Amino acid sequence: MLKTYIILFIISQLAFGGYQDNTEFDEKIKEIIRSRANGDVSFLRRFVNADGIPQGLGNRDGFNDSYCYKITERLLAHSKYADCTKLESLNGSVVDLNLWTGFDIFKFSVNLLELKNVKVEMTYRTELTYLYFSAFRKCDNCLFNLTRNPALVGLRFWNLSHGGYLDTLSHEYRPKLLVRGNLRLKLSQGEDRRKIEDLKKVCNKELCEIQNNEECHFRHSIKNSDEYSNCRHVYGDMHFTSRFQESQPGTMDFRIDGCFLFNRTGIQFLRPIMRAFPNCSRSHLFIKNKYMCTDQLLELKDRWKSNNVNVTPADGMDVKCYQGECRGGFVSENVKDRYSGCEVIRGNVLVTDQSGNVSERIRDLSYAHIINGSLHLINNTSIKKLALPFLKEIYSTQCPALVIQNMSNLTDIIFHSHIEFNCNSTGPKVLIKNSPKLYLYHQTLRQMRKAGAILEDFDSETDTYSENSTFYLVGLCVLIVIFVEIAWALRKNLLFPNWIYRIFPMSIKRKLKQKQPRKKKEE
Fold first, then answer.
1. What are the boundaries of the signal sequence (predicted)?
2. Where do the domains of the chain lie, and which CATH numbers do they carry?
3. pLDDT tens across 175-184, in order?
4. Helix (H) or strand (E) holding 197
């Protein structure tokens, strides 16, 4: 039993070319033992020689391999072909490894010696897989197409890359390799590039396309930046749809052998995308992304060559982010930084009960000076204070320009003291309904009334208090000033307590007596 475990250890070490990153393969071997050998690891002895070197089974006694030759089937889906040491097709066949179990794939890779007119294919496999073609020695018009497999963790051609057999093998009998887009496949470890160099050494130069480490492929549209955060290379196109609502995507500091497609996304800033190095044979597509900065999109077209970028605008509105402009829209708790630092907002701004807790998003809006559209706050209970101290104008094509409705917890609104509400159509410019806790400061209230605001279900006592308190404060200040002026003017004639004179000391100026010249005595 100890010798068996040593053999298993040797297989796993040779498979990974060292003592690092063996955990996944070891776990896979354990799973095969449990499911196929009932816990008996001795069956692994069949796949190694007396020295512990992995090898195929060769011609076993009692095995009829006649079905492995002169194959006419187009697709070899049956797992019986996993026992063949040689596969020969008459008109070109495809071995689809996706149709086989993990053990059948393992058995196929270590058994296989030769291929003729056969293509081995595995794409989009999600089950942990290691392809160890330990004894493979000859490939006559064959291809290994191993692309876009998120769970392929290893690939080796042991017999071809070790020993002198490769030196005697004609170039045309070497395997064609297409190995791209396998996220977890690591062929180099720091300065150690033995695995990738071995693959390049054994492959046919007619087709020898081998990926780098951590090369990603995205079969479906991307939902968030975390999906590509660990990618160093990308194989294939990257699709971003309406499911991607990040205002500023994560930095794309990688090379992509494919094209970008952005279709109705929530992306606003394109600077992170400009750091990518695309190799697109067709055109990058930007379709109706209404939040995108127009000036950054033009910059991207210049950088990626304008004839290689196809833009379909959402509505023709230009948004110049470098000049502090942003696109309005639906304010959501889940979308961050969309309005951060924006001074001019183009388009309507809408907050509803579906926006969630948007207290942080309202804080981002506080830098706005102008809204070229309407501002609607409806049925949201998370907002208690709306502070837009720099907002000087709300200009909308449709009235009303400002709507505050059913905001049950909203208590304060702060605008610029000289805010203006304008709209081109008929109707009230400001509408406030069903917001019982709302308190309007006098200056804001006066600007709303000047704009012909409709204040339904508004607390009249709060309204009156807001105006009267202002008049009272101004009158009190005037009286205090008059009293101080009178007291200062009469300070010399009035008798005040001593502490007042200590604070305001007085000095009395008196005229000096002029000395009269003495008269001379008469003699």
1. 1-17
2. 2-213 (no CATH), 225-312 (no CATH), 324-458 (3.80.20.20)
3. 999 999 998 8
4. helix 194-202
